[in-house]
Amino acid sequence: MPELTSQQISKLGNALIYLSKGVSELNKTKILKLLFLLEEASIKKYGHPFFGFDFQIWKLGPVLKDVFIDLSDDPLTLLKDYIKRDDSNSKEFIAAHDFSDDEFSDNDIDLMDIIINFSRNKTAADLVKYTHSDNSLWKKSAQKNNVLEQLEHGTLTSTDYNIDFSLLFDENSFLKEKYEHAVENLEFIKHLKK
User: Fold this and answer.
1) Does residue 38 belong to any structural domain of this protein?
2) Are 82 and 17 in contact (CB under 8 A)?
């Protein structure tokens, strides 16, 4: 994955602050699933990514590798200005600061509210099960890359393959074109910031 920009980190961090206010038991697995669900919902609804991240196909689902590494470290580095470990349970995370909406449109806020309402009473295991359902992007992407059987049987725990969000648009060419154009724009912007 290319290095995250400061704008991406800010949006990511503030999204986690916002999510932490409405979702309980915010542990590493739950955070990774919520970020993926936001990305998927934005692409499905609007044809453009919420963050513009690559999510890799791992055994426990779609994973944003840099965030996985950061949440596994103590102390946090990438997200230290946004979330921190809960003093009463070091496996859970809470907001480190107040939410800033500078990086968010009204549609972004609406999507985060939808994801909060969907996941409010779900455990991390519930979200893993949801992201692994028969018609999920994780399953479709794993099948496309011929790694599904190894992931499901535990002979493979992670891959460098990315979730293919274009699989969302098998029947909607307008949104597929819109998504592909948005991805091209994001890549161009990242290239300019190098």
Assistant:
1) yes
2) yes
3-state percent helix, strand, coil for the chain, nearest multiple of 5: 55, 10, 35
Residue 1 included in any domain? no
CA distance 194 to 184: 16
The single-letter code of the amino acid at 37 is L
The helix/strand count (H/E) of the chain reads as 8, 5
Taking the CA atoms of 21, 25, 28 and 30 in sequence, report the sign of the dihedral they define: negative
CB 113 within 8 Å of CB 101? no
The verdict on residue 100 lying in a domain is yes
Domain that holds residue 59: 6-192
Q: Is 184 helix (H, G, I), strand (E, B) or coil?
A: helix
Question: What predicted TM-score, i.e. pTM, was given to this entire model?
Answer: 0.89
pLDDT tens per residue, the chain (194 residues)?
347 788 889 999 999 999 999 998 999 999 999 999 999 999 988 888 999 889 999 998 899 999 999 999 989 999 999 999 999 988 999 999 999 999 899 999 999 999 999 999 899 999 999 999 998 999 999 999 999 999 999 899 999 999 999 888 877 676 777 777 777 776 766 666 65
